[in-house]
TrEMBL record:
<dbReference type="InterPro" id="IPR015421">
    <property type="entry name" value="PyrdxlP-dep_Trfase_major"/>
</dbReference>
<keyword id="KW-0238">DNA-binding</keyword>
<dbReference type="GO" id="GO:0003677">
    <property type="term" value="F:DNA binding"/>
</dbReference>
<protein>
    <submittedName>
        <fullName>HTH-type transcriptional regulator NorG</fullName>
    </submittedName>
</protein>
<dbReference type="InterPro" id="IPR051446">
    <property type="entry name" value="HTH_trans_reg/aminotransferase"/>
</dbReference>
<dbReference type="InterPro" id="IPR004839">
    <property type="entry name" value="Aminotransferase_I/II_large"/>
</dbReference>
<dbReference type="InterPro" id="IPR000524">
    <property type="entry name" value="Tscrpt_reg_HTH_GntR"/>
</dbReference>
<dbReference type="GO" id="GO:0030170">
    <property type="term" value="F:pyridoxal phosphate binding"/>
</dbReference>
<keyword id="KW-0805">Transcription regulation</keyword>
<dbReference type="GO" id="GO:0003700">
    <property type="term" value="F:DNA-binding transcription factor activity"/>
</dbReference>
<dbReference type="InterPro" id="IPR015424">
    <property type="entry name" value="PyrdxlP-dep_Trfase"/>
</dbReference>
<dbReference type="InterPro" id="IPR036390">
    <property type="entry name" value="WH_DNA-bd_sf"/>
</dbReference>
<dbReference type="Pfam" id="PF00392">
    <property type="entry name" value="GntR"/>
</dbReference>
<dbReference type="InterPro" id="IPR015422">
    <property type="entry name" value="PyrdxlP-dep_Trfase_small"/>
</dbReference>
<comment type="similarity">
    <text>In the C-terminal section; belongs to the class-I pyridoxal-phosphate-dependent aminotransferase family.</text>
</comment>
<feature type="domain" description="HTH gntR-type">
    <location>
        <begin position="8"/>
        <end position="76"/>
    </location>
</feature>
<dbReference type="Pfam" id="PF00155">
    <property type="entry name" value="Aminotran_1_2"/>
</dbReference>
């Protein structure tokens, strides 16, 4: 518990400091905020921590970035944002970050156990060993040592292998997805996504003017394969975005033969597969099948980030792709990411010494323990209000209300109790999953989670009888 408390929430302090600056700013004109380095020096934290806090505020729409000029506030509305304003996702995020809120909506495994301590220790050792480096100050495609470590980690066989030059590292997951869609000329096309789907992916596809076609997953985590085949026949799909192992937020695992069939159909139709490996290491069963085990390697892009495993000090995103190397190089050079070489080297060393593998074993065990603990509370306090499918990995339950209700209204009820949930509809562009919510077990377990679950059941019951 000490590790979690000491190492997990530095970015939250920065976030709330920035929130104070934003709220003190004029409501009619934008104002420039401190640079990443200025703020890091002012608050005594790392640049990565300030970057992560700025990214959260940008996701919420409170600030925006201008190339070469930095971050600026947005004019604040006269009235506070509410769920009925039409932007439920932003309201969930803003509410979860208010002081005193119990966020049952989180999806951050590193809240239970981060690697930020070992990462910063490794970084200090590297700084002492190599006080002056003759290498370029910033590597626009990522630090070579980290690119090589990722290529080695993702190599499984002579057929399924990667080289360091096929790995690209950017500031965060959103950035590398944006550049990948541009490098492969997929903007304005049609994408197939599993549904429910990560809100971050849905937002990035929307930003690229990509029309999203959602394919629902059953409670068992499987597609209706005949329906999927019919969809691929009638729709001009150019890319499919699918979870590598457990489907997030659902937490179920698709059988290997289903994944092979899906990959065969994608190959037949020359469709790009974007494999989301963000949660790929968080399956409770050993050696789960991944889409990349069956995909055409020349129509495959794998993307992920480090922060789910390491924590907020490692917000970088990365992609692996064999094709369009010249386009990737051009776009990454134009973007000019200025990422700490020493921080990237430190991450590479954690992979090289197997520290991350040891950490993952412990973290998965902690997630499994907390999942069982929350499952017991859901059974104890549910009062037949919800349907529970035990997740096979990840950090959350995908909970379904047994009776038809609007989970957004349950969300609003719980805000009065200072509890935040993630209504299911934020995981769909089409407004599906209104009877569902994502309920995390990466929580502050020092708080009375049982009481919060009981209040959730009461809110669902009150909404049903309203």
């Amino acid at each position: 518990m000490t590790v979690r408390k000491d190492a997990s929430f530095a970015y939250q302090t920065v976030y709330h400091y920035l929130l104070g600056l934003i709220e003190a700013a004029s409501g009619t004109t934008e104002q420039k905020l401190p640079s990443l380095r200025q703020l890091a020096l002012r608050l005594g934290v790392s640049v990565s921590t300030t970057k992560y806090a700025y990214a959260l505020l940008e996701d919420e729409g409170r600030i925006h970035a201008k190339a070469r000029f930095g971050y600026f506030t947005r004019p604040m509305p006269a009235a506070p944002v509410t769920a009925s304003s039409g932007n439920l996702l932003d309201h969930v995020f803003a509410s979860a970050r208010q002081p005193g809120m119990l966020a049952l909506s989180s999806d951050a495994p590193a809240m239970l156990l981060s690697l930020q301590g070992p990462l910063l220790t490794m970084e200090r050792e590297l700084t002492r060993q190599y006080p002056r480096s003759h290498a370029p100050l910033y590597q626009p495609l990522g630090e070579p040592e980290l690119r090589a470590a990722l290529a080695e980690r993702y190599t499984r066989s002579a057929h399924n292998h990667w080289q360091a030059e096929q790995v690209y590292i950017g500031a965060d997951l959103r950035s590398v997805l944006e550049l990948s869609l541009g490098a492969l000329n997929l903007g304005g096309s049609v994408a197939l996504v599993e549904s429910p789907c990560s809100w971050a992916i849905l937002r990035q596809l929307q930003a690229a003017n990509i029309r999203v076609v959602e394919m629902p997953l059953g409670d068992d985590g499987r597609f209706n394969l005949p329906a999927l085949r019919a969809l691929l026949t009638r729709e001009p799909v150019r890319l499919a975005v699918l979870s590598s192992t457990v489907n997030i937020p659902q937490g179920q695992l698709m059988p290997a033969h289903d994944k092979q069939q899906v990959c065969d159909w994608l190959t037949e139709r020359d469709i790009w597969l974007f494999e989301n490996d963000t949660w790929g290491e968080f399956c409770f069963s050993p050696a789960p099948a991944r889409y990349r085990d069956f995909a055409d390697p020349n129509k495959l892009l794998v993307f992920s980030t480090f922060d789910k495993i390491i924590g907020s000090e490692a917000p970088y995103g990365y992609v692996l792709c064999r094709q369009q190397g010249a386009q990737f190089h051009r776009l990454f050079l134009e973007r000019g990411f200025r990422l700490s070489p020493v921080r990237q080297k430190a991450i590479a060393r954690l992979y090289g010494c197997k520290r991350i593998d040891q950490h993952l074993i412990t973290l998965r065990a902690m997630l499994l323990k907390r999942m069982k603990q929350l499952h017991a509370l859901l059974k104890e306090h549910g009062n037949d209000q919800w349907q529970v499918v035990v997740p096979q990995g990840g950090a959350s339950f995908w909970l379904k209300a047994v009776r038809p209700i609007d989970m957004q209204r349950v969300f609003e009820r719980l805000l009065t109790e200072r509890i935040v949930i993630a209504p299911g509809e934020i995981f769909s562009q089409q407004g599906a999953w209104k009877q569902y919510l994502r309920l995390s077990y990466t929580l502050d377990w020092d708080k009375d989670i049982g009481h919060a679950v009981k209040q959730l059941a009461q809110a669902i019951g009150a909404e049903h009888h309203a």
